[in-house]
């Protein structure tokens, strides 16, 4: 009797994960056809790596998960800036301070977008997410568009962040079309 109960629970759990994986793959596929900048493999991988995505039952659930992923990445970048500033080893402080401000604003925008998604105000959510998506490029510009250009220590991470924010934007746009 116990064995059959465990077996049923196992199959229910397996079905839940398979459904979530299918939702992720289908949603990423649709999103990449609508936005060619979004990379399918990156979309799927970034969501499948997050255990919260396995509980998503809808596209809106994936918006929450992907937005939280972007918040987490932005927070990580902000921490990197803080660390570099505290070590006081970087030759130019101004772009670091600018990036710190940009990341802080991006986190605020992404968190606000979660509230607007909850209220199904998808246009405002997309606008807020788009504002956050400007942070990585603007941060890079702070290093390169100086009288004496300096190499950004965040180029790779900013590229990843750009795509991480692009995912919830694409998903939210899909919700707005429903």
Describe the structure.
With about 180 residues, the protein is mainly α. The protein has helices at about 1-35, 40-50, 60-85, 95-120, 120-145, 155-175. Helix 1 (about 1-35) packs across helix 6, helix 3 (about 60-85) runs antiparallel to helix 4 and helix 3 (about 60-85) packs antiparallel against helix 6 (about 155-175). Belongs to the PMEI family. Keywords: Disulfide bond, Membrane, Signal, Transmembrane, Transmembrane helix.
Give the number of DSSP strands: 0
Order of helices and strands: HHHHHH
Structural class: mainly alpha
Major sheet, described briefly? none
Give average pLDDT, whole number: 88
Q: Helix count?
A: 6
CATH architecture, by name, is Up-down Bundle
Residue share in helix? over 70%
The name of the CATH topology is Butyryl-CoA Dehydrogenase, subunit A, domain 3
Report the sheet-strand fraction: under 5%
Tell me the layout of helices and strands.
Blueprint: H1 2-34, H2 40-48, H3 59-87, H4 94-118, H5 122-144, H6 155-177
Helix pairs in contact: 1-2, 1-6, 3-4, 3-6, 4-5, 5-6
Question: Which features characterize this protein?
Answer:
178 residues, mainly alpha, Butyryl-CoA Dehydrogenase, subunit A, domain 3, 6 helices, elongated
């Amino acid at each position: 009797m116990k064995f059959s109960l465990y077996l049923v629970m196992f199959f229910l759990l397996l079905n839940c994960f398979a459904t979530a994986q299918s939702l992720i793959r289908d949603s990423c596929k649709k999103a990449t056809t609508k936005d060619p900048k979004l990379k399918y493999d990156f979309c799927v991988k970034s969501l499948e790596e997050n255990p919260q995505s396995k509980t998503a039952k809808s596209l809106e659930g994936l918006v929450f998960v992907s937005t939280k992923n972007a918040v987490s990445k932005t927070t990580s970048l902000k921490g990197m800036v803080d660390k570099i500033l505290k070590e006081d080893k970087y030759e130019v402080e101004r772009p670091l301070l600018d990036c710190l401000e940009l990341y802080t604003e991006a986190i605020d925008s992404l968190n606000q977008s979660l509230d607007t998604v909850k209220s199904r105000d998808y246009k405002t959510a997309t606008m807020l997410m788009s504002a956050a998506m400007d942070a990585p490029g603007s941060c890079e510009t702070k290093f390169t568009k100086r009288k004496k250009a300096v190499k950004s220590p965040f180029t790779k991470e900013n590229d990843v962040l750009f795509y991480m924010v692009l995912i919830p934007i694409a998903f939210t746009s899909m919700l707005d079309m429903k």
